[in-house]
Design goal:
Elements: E1 4-9, H1 14-22, E2 27-32, H2 42-52, E3 56-59, H3 66-71, H4 73-93, E4 97-103, H5 126-141, E5 146-150, E6 153-154, H6 161-171, E7 174-178, E8 182-183, E9 186-187, H7 188-200, E10 206-209, E11 216-217, H8 218-231, E12 242-246, H9 266-272, H10 279-293
Parallel strand pairs: 1-2, 1-3, 3-4, 4-5, 5-10, 6-9, 7-12
Antiparallel strand pairs: 8-11
Bound molecules: NADP nicotinamide-adenine-dinucleotide phosphate.
Length: 294
Amino acid sequence: MKKMKILVTGKNGQLGRELQGQCPTEFELIALSREELDISDIDAVKDVVERNHPDVIINAAAFTNVDNAEGDQDAAFLVNVKGVENLALVCKKFSIRFIHISTDYVFDGRKSSPYVVSDKVKPLSVYGATKAEAESVISKVLPDAVIVRTSWVYSIHSHNFVNTMLRLMVERDQLGVIADQVGTPTWTGTITRILFDLVRNKSSKGIYHCTDLGVASWYDFALAIYEEGKAKGLLPADKSLTIKAITTQDYPATAERPAYSVLDKSRLMNELGVDFKHWREILRHVFDIKVQQL
Ligand SMILES: NC(=O)c1ccc[n+]([C@@H]2O[C@H](COP(=O)([O-])OP(=O)(O)OC[C@H]3O[C@@H](n4cnc5c(N)ncnc54)[C@H](OP(=O)(O)O)[C@@H]3O)[C@@H](O)[C@H]2O)c1
């Protein structure tokens, strides 16, 4: 039987790499880097689609530097809005299923209970605004598309909070980490597993929330990285480190971030029967993989 063909954009990003590494054999996956397919160029998007005839496109490409987006709005818009519109238009023209990744940063963080898929978006940052605009463009151009919002993404290899913390925890004796921003750390492996479930489930459409389970501040996350990192031998056992809880005001960033951005995952649980695991259990699992790869 002919395999379903999935085209993945942004192949060198955290999610792009995980999708390539975890692709089940039932699918044929074509992954393209920015050099191979710049999604902001609609002719390039058309050309790639006409040459490869994918059944599904998963857009893992994005302008993801939240702070840089504040000073480079045009560049963020070009990738996160125009690029997404290009993909949606081409998917519509060639009847291809479109799966796009969005973010918890579309919300303003004023809630104190998990955001449901129908909650009103109100981004605080340029990055969040471009991602929210892309969601709205998709809903107009291709209402049958799937939008997967996720949060606080990390993977084994790339540049992310976990790897930065592991490095700093070796280099320093003291660290200050923000304790008044709360969300859910999410491994790319979790998102990837659910993206392939969504590919299989052809009737899925609209917005889904996909993160690991539980709630954490960046400070809680850093403490867990320290404790689990030591337990798994990724940090020296005799290393002593003070991790101090600080506030957003103590560590001003260029872009404003939501104080609370936990996402309600009941739609994926109810419709697809997805079982999620707690972020700390997932962190331990990711560290086990890291240890095996040393
Ligand atoms: N990271 C997070 O914490 C987080 C949280 C919530 C949601 N998300 C969303 O999850 C998705 C995946 O994020 P990620 O962490 O995997 O991002 P990432 O590691 O920054 O990867 C993004 C990839 O997109 C590529 N790219 C940028 N502009 C492009 C263009 N014009 N055409 C084609 N490719 C382009 C980049 O190419 P280069 O390698 O050449 O730069 C990079 O490989 C994104 O939609 C992001 O908004 C991420």
